[in-house]
Amino acid sequence: MAIGVFDSGVGGLTVHRTLVERLPHANFIYLADQANAPYGGRPGEEVVDLTRAGCIRLFEAGASLVVLACNTASAIALRRLQQTWLPGYRKETGRALNVLGIIVPTIEAATGLPWEHEAERRGDKIEKLDILGVFSTPGTASSRVFEIEIDKRKQDLAVFSEPCPNLARMIEEGAGPVDLAREVETHVENLKRRVGRYPDRAILGCTHYEMVADLFRAALPPGTPLIHQPGATADALALYLERHPELDPGSSGLRRFLTTGTPGRQNGLVQGFWGAPLDFEAA
Length: 283
Ligand code: DGL
Hints:
By secondary structure, the protein is α/β, with parallel strands linked by helices. 45% of the residues lie in helices and 18% in strands. The strands form two sheets. A seven-stranded mixed beta sheet has the order 4-3-1-2-9-11-10, with helices on both faces. Strands 6-5-7-8 form a four-stranded parallel beta sheet, sandwiched between helices. The longest helix has 19 residues.
């Protein structure tokens, strides 16, 4: 058995790398749906259908658990798939299977509170003390998942999302550092203009953006804390596996990288992040 890691493209590698470091003996299969990337501007129903197809591919390849290393899929498709498709698919295959997302652990890290925590609803006006900026795809931003779920848990944190419609595609295409820096700066400045000041902390709410985290650090005021999805997801996954021994992740250290797009070597930006040449096989 194995852990499947799914993203529209190479962004999920930022999560995958940390998962592998945390669970070095587990088997991992990564699937990039590059034939259909980017997901961020697609209608919700398409994101649901593509995410379901990705999960099936990973389950068929031997995964018992799929981690959606994609905010767009986690925000738009995860709950639907868990409620309406997964129970029937489990019955059909007779296997113990599950799909997890990355937004729950990110919100736990951003609030410092467990998911089960609910803020006490107070009648009086609540002072919003901190501004949390969320940079994401348009799909994730219009789901308002970060605003809604954080407000339920921590009412003194004001969440402002900044959709970045081109950034995941640029990273997927291996854009150069000057163009990427300009794009990141534009979005940081847009958010500042809308809010009236820079955020006190930020979430890079699209897994692709972790590859250009240094550009976000440079565009934000020095020292602005960034909430890291990879670490938060790895912590949550390790705990989840302890509680669910039936979802055996295997122990031979298998690593496979699949793509629905063109197999072969990924672009220089991705290799720079990964630290070694990275070849994908056809899914
Ligand atoms: N990396 C994905 C995310 O976290 C998807 C980006 C895209 O395909 O638009 O949202």
